[in-house]
Design a protein that fits this description.
Blueprint (H helix, E strand, L loop, with lengths): L16 E5 L4 E5 L12 E5 L5 E6 L4 E7 L1 H6 L5
Antiparallel strand pairs: 1-2, 2-5, 3-4, 4-5
Length: about 80
């Protein structure tokens, strides 16, 4: 089902697009094609209860991305997220 490229029940297909920014140690995992974000003017970053993790929503309130700050530190730590 994850490889479906069509709209089902008005929902866009799930696409996982990870982008890692080494200079800021930030991992962004997009649930839609990254280019689709440019069609949406407003992106809202929402903090979560988990340290260094944010969720991005588009102007329609859809979750489009999870942002992991200090990604290498999180990956290398022994604690569970």
């Amino acid at each position: 089902m994850f490889d479906m490229r069509e709209v089902i029940d008005g929902k866009l297909p799930l696409t996982l697009n990870p982008i890692y920014y080494e200079d800021s140690d930030t991992l962004e995992i997009y649930f839609i094609e990254h280019a689709e974000l440019f069609c949406n003017v407003f992106v809202n970053n929402m903090k979560t209860d988990i340290e260094d993790i944010e969720v991005e929503q588009d102007n329609l309130g859809r979750n489009t991305c999870i942002v992991f700050h200090n990604a290498k530190k999180k990956k290398n730590s022994k604690t569970n997220i």
